[in-house]
Amino acid sequence: xxxxxxxxxxxxxxxxxxxxxxxxxxxxxxxxxxxxxxxxxxxxxxxxxxxxxxxxxxxxxxxxxxxxxxxxxxxxxxxxxxxxxxxxxxxxxxxxxxxxxxxxxxxxxxxxxxxxxxxxxxxxxxxxxxxxxxxxxxxxxxxxxxxxxxxxxxxxxxx
Length: 159
Prior knowledge:
mainly alpha, Rna Polymerase Sigma Factor, Chain: A, Arc Repressor Mutant, subunit A, 73% helix, elongated
């Protein structure tokens, strides 16, 4: 019976991570060759630009070089660790320097929102209500619910 290819791949990636943690540059090059396509694809999808994807990908492998000794295979596969690192760096990539961390949180963005859209978002996201159910609870027409939610989500994306 053949071993699961993901398990074989993870065993290879774990061995490379062990070598990278010993400052073996050839191991980093091999790890890069095996994983860069997936790391770049994720970074590109989050940053939404080729240049952003490239910048984040470069940062990911610098962090791998610096933090390889922190990787613990008991906590999950190497690719999961790389993807988590990529997500964190990609999300941080678009943040303007000097912006207070509170301003970047969802709670901060919601706090600056008008009461009606904030209430409608809460009913939709936290309670999972349909547009019609939200309209009945809030006492507004369903069309207004849809428009308010669309604008509120666009505002959150912008922030």
